[in-house]
Specification:
The protein is mainly alpha-helical. It has one domain: 2-enoyl-CoA Hydratase, Chain A, domain 1. Helix content is 54%, strand content 11%.
């Protein structure tokens, strides 16, 4: 899992700002990827949620670290523990994205930001990005998450998740 997540989150290591144009739902790992990006534009109409705990597994994709790093413990706990579903406007009010616009305007808004960024000095942007994030802490968090998920994947709770999905019902977790 660590290698997969590390590769998936390589956008964090790019020397240029990465813009996310989320014009549809971003759930679980999809939402994690949006938060790995530097600038996020969300669709007003789309749904955003971390559903990991509802599936019986520890959050992955660096979520436990990135969400806390970006938004603080209070918001991280709300998103990760409660698995709340938000629309783009709610996400914007919480500061989870830089802008929330109607779905048909997401790519246009992201393009406007890309043009604005292109007028800045690339070396300065690269240095700024390098100094903005703590790569070692993210890597350590990825390792911890991979270990936690490995334990969760062999748990009775995760097996219950699979059964519940097959039977089209909510899982009943027992902490085993």
């Amino acid at each position: 899992m660590f290698e997969f997540y590390n590769l998936f989150l390589s956008v964090r290591r790019l020397d240029i700002p990465v813009i996310c144009a989320a014009n549809g739902h971003a759930i679980g790992a999809g939402l994690s990827l949006t938060f790995a990006c530097d600038i996020r534009i969300f669709s007003n109409e789309a749904k955003y949620q971390f559903n990991f705990v509802k599936l019986g597994i520890h959050p992955g994709m660096g979520s436990s670290y990135i969400v806390k790093e970006l938004f603080g413990t209070h918001i991280a706990n709300r998103l990760l523990f409660l698995a709340e579903t938000l629309n783009g406007e709610e996400a914007f009010r919480l500061g989870l994205c830089n802008d929330s616009v109607p779905q048909k305007e997401v790519l246009g808004r992201a393009t406007e930001i890309a043009i604005a960024l292109s007028e800045s000095a690339p070396l300065a942007l690269g240095e700024l990005k390098k100094n903005t994030y703590d790569r070692e802490k993210l890597e350590a968090a990825l390792r911890k998450e991979a270990e936690s998920q490995a334990r969760n994947f062999i748990s009775a709770d995760f097996k219950e998740t699979i059964k519940a999905i097959e039977q089209k019902r909510k899982p009943v977790f027992k902490g085993l």
